[in-house]
Amino acid sequence: MAQVKRLLLLLLCVCSTARLVQSKVHFYSWEISYQFKSPDCYKKLAVTINGETPGPTILAQQGDTIVVEVKNNLLTENVAIHWHGIRQIGTPWFDGTEGVTQCPIVPGDNFIYTFVVDRPGTYLYHAHYGMQRSAGLYGLIQVAVPDGFVEPFAYDDDRSIILNDWWHNSTYELATGLSSIPFVWVGEPQSLLINGRGKFNCPAAQPTSSCNATNPECSPFVLTVVPGKTYRLRIASVTSLSALNFEIEGHNLTVVEADGHYVKPFVVKNLNIYSGETYSVIFTANQDPSRNYWLAVNVVSRKPGTPTGTGILNYFPNHPNRPPPTTAPPASPPWNDTEYRFKQSVDARAHPNYVLPPPPTSDRTIILLNTQNMVDGHMKWSLNNVSFNLPHTPYLIAVKENLRHVFDQRPAPETYDYRNYDIYAKPKNPNATTGTPIYRLGFNTTVDVILQNAKMPGNSSSETHPWHLHGHDFWVLAHGHGKFDPERDPKRYNLVDPIMKNTVALHPFGWTALRFRADNPGVWLFHCHIEAHFSMGMGVVFAEGVDRVGKLPTSIMGCGESKNFLGSP
Amino acid sequence: MAQVKRLLLLLLCVCSTARLVQSKVHFYSWEISYQFKSPDCYKKLAVTINGETPGPTILAQQGDTIVVEVKNNLLTENVAIHWHGIRQIGTPWFDGTEGVTQCPIVPGDNFIYTFVVDRPGTYLYHAHYGMQRSAGLYGLIQVAVPDGFVEPFAYDDDRSIILNDWWHNSTYELATGLSSIPFVWVGEPQSLLINGRGKFNCPAAQPTSSCNATNPECSPFVLTVVPGKTYRLRIASVTSLSALNFEIEGHNLTVVEADGHYVKPFVVKNLNIYSGETYSVIFTANQDPSRNYWLAVNVVSRKPGTPTGTGILNYFPNHPNRPPPTTAPPASPPWNDTEYRFKQSVDARAHPNYVLPPPPTSDRTIILLNTQNMVDGHMKWSLNNVSFNLPHTPYLIAVKENLRHVFDQRPAPETYDYRNYDIYAKPKNPNATTGTPIYRLGFNTTVDVILQNAKMPGNSSSETHPWHLHGHDFWVLAHGHGKFDPERDPKRYNLVDPIMKNTVALHPFGWTALRFRADNPGVWLFHCHIEAHFSMGMGVVFAEGVDRVGKLPTSIMGCGESKNFLGSP
């Protein structure tokens, strides 16, 4: 085992230096434009890459360099693309997070992202500007292991699916409703999409011009398998809102990878997956091969208002779509069975041969109380009573160039009044504010973050929040119920084989403890991956080692104060 | 910061000279945002100024300075605002024309427009970026004569209305359809708006959530008059598509002003008005005062698919809305009665006391054949077979800084093969292209432009195009039928009392001759004011005296090559 670890370390070193000698450069040229699309049979505008949504899958090998030239052909709208799960070591300016690491790319501009995929695994990319991700700009990144490296699981073929939820309203309508007084909620998504395909049940009253149930764009996604073969299925979610449960009718799934890390294999009948997460599961086509089976996604954690999204597991040589399975598509466990989902979170551990042990102690603990608040008549999400606002000059530029007036220089609040706050009571939130403060982390220090969930004001519930950290993977030390106790609960941390992730669920009325090393010079967003929640302020920013960040490329500049750093020398 | 400094300097200058001329500075602070609005009872997103569409009317006096601080609070969309009819003498960089005089204003940015309204009259402002004008960003500018100046007509009170057409589709849907292969036309507008108010007749099948016929936002516009009094009514049109005919039931209108110029008064039963035009008419409330009367706008020149837009002429002290007139709202003359509209164009002459005589000869004649073409599968509009594309670096910056690779340096085509081209035949257009060439005009030269209409490829018609020139007023020397003959037709020019305008109609299968002095240093757009037509390439650009243009403000920069001119010195 020690040998394997050494080998792995060696490979990591080789690959990080091997860029010049062995690694490849993958060049992509992407034109971003609006197109009329019918992913669920209902025609609406979507933001597309080279005319498609989802966009192309980026296929690379560990250590390769990805170069994506983005041409913004939207008419009047800017864009920025985030490479979700890629740590951007040495290239913090190409994280693609508008307002944090770059100015938006204006129409007509070309912007070139260049970065190294330094770890194998399954990752995502998606728009990171306003709520543009909801409009269809997203796709997969698959990074293969180095030649000769053997993964701790075997399979005959590698497939992937990306899950999404889909509204017929425009993202502008969604976003304007969120910031309106009074707050207007667009309602639950119309459809769930598997690889960009869903099926909206056009009501009879619906104008047929915009809903065409025979449009081939919305024919169901088909996963064809050969009887007896074993498959690695990469599953990723970029939902704007929905927590999902994924099931392949009649086939158990063995979870082997999460967010690019090997996990101790565990078997599930179905997989809970939150927005921003990726998994690899292994399954064998070992059922009656004379028929096909359902792929099914269902909304969980939130009372579903969206029908089951379905695809077809097609046993070769059956016809992919005819006849469809006569069984009913799998239903998820009860949507409000928090314990079911909690258990999956706890079951996920690092693979014993690939444990990267966490530092035994941390230098700093930040506790973040997640609440929904009213601020100046607007409904907001807050962390320790501060609802996050993006400044107009991106943080990375502001911090590196010491533009102190660009954002609030007071430190963001380190904790909340956990002794007296009742997470089961309707929040009082007498003094929530919007703000731009950040957390400045000592370089190479170890930081614990405790996410604390609580009751929402409007009803008796507490939502699931998938928190995503840019620029790092973190160890998931514990999930807990109720209120985190800083004295008692750290003793329960799993310091032996915690899973590493970049996105983790905070369960209703629970808490999640995570640890990371502030070892990646840059400025990094940490936020709820629910598009509406982040839009309503559910995020914080970490800055670390910015003095070690090299000269910022001028391509990320052009907005706010960063205009002053452009120009010929 | 530099912008603020410049503003302060300008204010100082204005104020120090103001002792002599008594001009004032009007400061406006405008926040641009999306809001749900129901101008015609149907709720949809609109681009608003301080939450309103139309925006506030700018009221000023000749020689005053207007300062508008625009804060872009759109989520992901840029903006630019054009001050239509204001010549921007000395401030060509504040014309507000994205791609010609400035980069777009990105979300979060503040942009300060500062300009002098140097002529009295009725003008417009509106978005000039993509098809954003259609989304609701528009309003009026009224410039009063200097104290003591007596206008050549008398009235008791001054009122204004602004006309628009309105779609329920988003402007993104309109625009994406126009650039799609195959071309997708959104269809005729759902409503005509008078001062931002119309009435869509919600079909029974329509979801009531988005259509509310009792919403006060869509109560009809009411123009209250006192019996016996005489009114000046300013009428402006910012339609995206429609040529309109305006009538006040039972009241003749005396036309006295057009595009800020006094005209020889002429009486009409109803007024044809094209997008981008403004008029003042005089009418007297001299009808039976016991009832109210209709204000009515109808689509002309194009087969109407939009109901009559109505408002109420309310004789005080009747109730404004109850009961509505029992008569039918006035219908327009037949929509395809081109001669009726042609006659109004020809009837408009300069007021005898205010003739600004045109130069008797011109230094250059540019003939522009207006055709619809297919270019690489896209439907386009072309001038002399060139369909206009905006470059990514605004022309003003490119020309002034001599960035020769930013746009096509070859001169734009001066004429077409008028000897052989049959304007009544379906166009062959074998070699139309898209391009960025411009017309470089000798400073202080006199330029004639002949607009030549022709048959469209798709049907047997020829459309009316309202051509608008930025930075200048021009003399309208003649309107003609058929094909302009460069030998014969200049002899028919009215060199005695031609009307001056900034927007003029090119009638179906006709031609329009205009003359202007290239005396305003800058780069100026000349284009069809139909939003879809300009978006499809129906425009040209004139550059003149750019060496006399002062240092460009950095606030207009930040896109394309103009990034290189930013930065601290």
Provide an overview of this structure.
2 copies of one chain form a homodimer. Chain A has about 575 residues and is mostly beta strands. Helices cover about 10% and strands about 35% of the residues of chain A. Chains A, B: Keywords: Copper, Disulfide bond, Metal-binding, Oxidoreductase, Repeat, Secreted, Signal. Chains A, B: It is an enzyme of class 1 (oxidoreductase). Chains A, B: InterPro entries: Cu-oxidase-like_N (IPR011707), Cu-oxidase_2nd (IPR001117), Cu-oxidase_C (IPR011706), Cu-oxidase_fam (IPR045087), Cu_oxidase_CS (IPR033138), Cu_oxidase_Cu_BS (IPR002355), Cupredoxin (IPR008972), CuRO_3_AAO (IPR034267). Chains A, B: One of its GO terms (cellular component) is extracellular region.
Structure at a glance:
The structure is a homodimer of 569-residue chains. Helices cover 8% and strands 36% of the residues of chain A. Chain A has helices spanning 2-17, 171-178, 338-347, 395-400, 531-535; strands spanning 25-37, 44-49, 58-61, 65-72, 81-84, 110-116, 121-127, 138-144, 157-166, 191-194, 222-225, 230-237, 243-248, 253-258, 261-268, 270-273, 278-284, 293-300, 309-315, 364-375, 378-383, 386-388, 433-435, 439-441, 446-452, 465-469, 474-481, 500-501, 503-506, 510-517, 522-528, 539-544.
> How many beta strands in the DSSP annotation of chain A?
32
Total count of domains of chain A: 2
Number of helices of chain A: 5
Second CATH tier, the architecture of the largest domain in chain A: Sandwich
Rg of chain A over CA atoms, rounded to whole Å, is 23 Å
Low-confidence stretches of chain A: 6-21
Average of the residue pLDDT scores of chain A: 93
| CATH topology term of the largest domain in chain A | Immunoglobulin-like
Assigned CATH class of the largest domain in chain A: Mainly Beta
Task: Identify the most extensive interface between protein chains.
Answer: A-B, 40 and 40 residues
Helix content of chain A: under 10%
Largest sheet of chain A: 6 strands, mixed
Strand order of the largest sheet of chain A: 10-9-12-17-14-15
CATH homology superfamily of the largest domain in chain A: Cupredoxins -  blue copper proteins
Oligomer: homodimer
The N- to C-terminal Cα distance of chain A equals 54 Å
**Global structural class of chain A:** mainly beta
